[in-house]
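Contributing new records

If you add data, match the layout below exactly. Sequence lines come first and carry their own label; structure lines follow with theirs. Keep one chain per record. Anything else will be rejected by the validation script.
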Amino acid sequence: MSDPEATSGDALFDLGEPPRAPTRPSPVAPLAVRMRPQTLDEVVGQGHLLHAGSPLRRLVETDDSAAVILWGPPGSGKTTIAGIVSLQTSRRFVEVSAVSAGVKEVREAIAAAREQLARGGPGTVLFVDEVHRFSKAQQDALLPAVENRWVTLIAATTENPFFSVIGPLLSRSLLLTLHPLDDHGVETVVRGALADDRGYAGTAEIEPSALDQLVRLAGGDARRALTYLEAAVSASNARGKSLVDVETLGLAVDKAAVRYDREGDQHYDVISAFIKSIRGSDVDAALHYLARMIAAGEDPRFIARRLVILASEDIGLADPTALTTAVAAAQAVQLIGLPEARLNLGQAVIALAVAPKSNAVVVAVDAAMADVEAGRIGGVPAQLRDSHYPGATRLGHGAGYRYAHDDPRGVAPGRFAPDAVAGRTYYRPTRHGAEAPLEERLAAIRAVLDEAPDER
């Protein structure tokens, strides 16, 4: 079987006899390559796809062609599963990388697969890695092969296929979702590499505390776990040791990589968790998600804009300083940028998370907008109309208007809303924070306004 990591033209058009048995990777190959599962039973962490009678099992156990989209994070086994389908069904494995291939390469790969079928040869597993990087035209080029079953298409993506794969291809494909490995799954992969003769065959060990740290650093990515393990074992060997300890692991791996795509699911999921954590007043969770976005390279201006929105949407007048704080943080981001602006963002996040919460502003504005959009508009009352131009007085504009500053209460009786929404109440302050006293003050204001005679 061609190495599933290969993307070269030679691998693409290798039309020799397909392999009939697993081939052992070179002993100098990376550990993650040497430990790649050869059968579905060796795959770790995707039990929901591997049970008896599952679509993936049927794909491997029968000769039927199909189209499958594997959606999952890096290191969850997408390339491995594609290779297993080819190996265990004796089909040819052809990989096209969306990073380097165009429509021409896709069509040539499909043509070669058709030629093999016409000669009575084996079928072809066409593996398209990072299919989300294909343009619409490139994805369109796959449709005839899928519809006519000239190939068994396996397309892999780390991004939500409902956003990144064209509808016609998605509707013709079986969507299988792969999950990041849990801690137990990563530990299983690491222990397997230490014991298996494809790995270290018992010649290397890892102490429990170092294993725990390695599992955390891997972040659910089996390939990353094996890469880190290989680096740590090499570092231990260089120090004349066979045991990987925490100190040696620290020398080999400096920090955890952050799984985050600024244009994919992680972008939306993390910012959603960030906003909801602030709304829920969990300052520690909010700071975690802030750090996660900054470490992953998220645009700090995007973070700042969301804080400005949140200040009015979720805090409002419960803390009138919230909007000022958020706007100041946004200005600081524009003025000084990262890394220093992380402090300004952090200050704003803490202030907004611990602030009293109220959604009265957004409820009031949306209620008013709903009335307007429903046609409840009406004419501006005559006493409020502009009376500064010649002839306005004869039209009755301004007649009966009471100047608020002439009343010792600072509020004068009067009607301000048009007839269509007279008596409607949009703003209802909560009892939270600085908004609580507004309830009593607002009731007093409305009582004064209602003293005006009904002239309708």
